Amino acid sequence: MADLLQSPDTMAEVKFSFFYCMFSFWSSGLLVLVCTLSEGLEAFGSVLHSKQFLVLAALYELGKVGLAKLLSGHGPSLSLARGTPPDGKPVRGPVLRKVWIKLARLVVKLTPVGHLLVGVAVLLVAWLFSVYVTVCFGAPLLSSWPETGSFCALLTLLTVYPSLLVLGPSFSTLSVVYSSLSDSPLASTLFINWMCTVLGAWLGAFPIPLDWDRPWQVWPIPCCLGAVAGHVVGNVVGAGRVWPYLASVNAGCGKRKFV
Length: 259
Hints:
Blueprint: H1 8-39, H2 41-48, H3 51-72, H4 95-109, H5 111-136, H6 145-167, H7 171-178, H8 185-204, H9 221-250
Helix pairs in contact: 1-2, 1-3, 1-8, 1-9, 2-9, 3-6, 5-6, 6-8, 6-9, 8-9
């Protein structure tokens, strides 16, 4: 790893991973602690899958990635691929050739919009896949459709959405992160967050059928609480995993200083 840390790109990924995990841990941890103590599990769990919270969570994730990018210098995050810029030369020749060249230049200029639409499509497919898997595990589809859909939206925001913001909006991004075959510290961190979030949501389903007669046992409150708790744990594990690399850089490993 010491040799890899000599690469500026790898160092940027390590820094980004640490800042992102710490921001996520402190914000999510404080949210869980304050809301649970003040509102209770039932009220807090109900808020987690509400439309207002999901919109705010999406915007907050955008700002959190942007702040981590600013502090770490990680270039790929929050970036949309751009096509080759046009040469800017005057278009000469037949009318059809002029129209064709102008259309080609327009397509190049709209390349970022196309990638943005691809990202939206990936999120939609991921949400549908989450609904399918959740229903296969026993979630109600017809009787509690809004609750099931909003829970899957929360799960998508905590797992797929950050990966697309950080590594780019494409299906290949998900294959890199969720296959766990990449040596990238950032992809590994996102994979850990995904695993812990999904595991927390799965463990959260266990209290639902028990006869405890607690108001927070109603679907999907326990799974939402479990997903957020797992997300917090995943960020702690992710930060702890990259911290030794940062400490080694501070100590002089790789002849680079962490600033």
